[in-house]
TrEMBL record:
Protein name (record): Molybdate transport system substrate-binding protein
Gene3D superfamilies the record matches: Periplasmic binding protein-like II (3.40.190.10)
Top-rank taxon: Bacteria
A GO biological-process term: molybdate ion transport
Alphabetized SUPFAM superfamilies for the sequence: Periplasmic binding protein-like II
Species of origin: Acidovorax soli
InterPro entries named among the record's database cross-references: ModA/WtpA
Stored Pfam families: SBP_bac_11
GO molecular function, one term: molybdate ion binding
Length: 230
């Protein structure tokens, strides 16, 4: 008798790595899991509203809020992957120098338009520009990608000149060149966590999947998708 399929929801940032890991998990255990990837804000709203899921995969602060609200089981939070931000330009465009904090600041000031995401990396980037004292100067050139729309797609179309997003989300976009990760001094790292949804009818199976995502067996897939084990 086959076990019921686990159902989950995640933000877009972990879509590719989850697809790879869920396929491996099903092959090893026979347990099928389907995790829908949407914008992180929408995902949290749907979980909060009580939609039936088994697992929730979001940035750690979003998981903590859902635990506080009773929508994710307390004690089930599992940190499983870390994701850093990279910079992209349209394929064929000159690559700006991003080797230091000052170089990135200069590249931002020189860019006609800059795009960032609605996720935690976008919030952190806006704070960085404020700290640099350039927020007002670049405000008119900032283009926030709509939820669920990759920053890379705006860069590829030529809608924006400089794109900032998690490397994992830029890796699979055609028509862009990834300049590289932000330098260590200003790197923006998001820790993604998972948790068992309070609505889950099979919490033990859900927790077993989360344990697999955080296990050493999952490390290579994370690196292939531009992330690091948490």
């Amino acid at each position: 008798m086959s076990t019921p399929t686990l159902r989950g929801i995640s933000s877009m940032a972990t879509r590719q790595v989850l697809a790879e890991l869920l396929a491996a998990y099903e092959q090893q255990t026979g347990q099928r899991a389907v995790i829908e990837a949407v914008g992180g804000v929408d995902a949290a709203k749907r979980v909060q509203a009580g939609e039936a899921f088994d697992v929730v995969v979001l940035a750690s602060d979003a998981i903590d809020k859902l635990i506080a609200a009773g929508a994710v089981v307390a004690g089930s939070r599992t940190d499983w992957v870390r994701s850093g931000v990279a910079v992209a330009v349209r394929a064929g465009a000159p690559l700006p120098d991003i080797g230091s904090e000052d170089a990135v600041r200069s590249a931002v000031l020189a860019a006609r338009s800059i795009s960032y995401s609605t996720g935690p990396s976008g919030v952190a980037l806006a704070k960085l520009f404020e700290r640099w004292g350039i927020a007002a100067e670049v405000a008119g050139r900032m283009v926030q990608a709509p939820p669920g729309v990759p920053v890379g797609s705006l860069v590829a179309r030529g809608d924006v000149e400089l794109g900032f997003q998690q490397l994992s989300e830029l890796l699979h976009v055609e028509g862009i060149a990834i300049v590289g990760p932000l330098p260590p001094a200003i790197q923006i790292t998001t820790i993604f966590s998972s948790g068992v949804a309070a609505t889950s009818q099979q919490p033990a199976a859900a927790q077993a999947l989360l344990d697999f995502l955080a296990s050493p067996a999952a490390a290579d897939a994370k690196r292939r998708q531009g992330m690091d084990p948490a």
